[in-house]
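Before relying on records like the one below, remember that each one covers exactly one chain. Contacts with other chains, cofactors or solvent are not represented anywhere in the record.
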Amino acid sequence: MKIALLALLGLALGALGGAALGIGAGIAWVEIFKTTSFEGYNGMLVFFTFMPMGAAIGGIGGALLFGILAIRDAEIAIERQPVRRQDR
């Protein structure tokens, strides 16, 4: 259950981060390639193309990253075994 919840958290955080990076990449694309701004084409390109692509890529990446971290954490022994004292 812990793995699934962490994967969902990674999905949400990755989607938010990916959308923000997608907006930044879209604005950079518009500025570098001098895309026309006729009838708001710049904004539509950024918010209907780059933002959803960034959110999808970020969501998948975040879910995979958090899921892998949660799986590895389950394999690591959290509690240490007590050291046996030698009887003398």
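Residues 12 and 61 are 11 Å apart (CA to CA).
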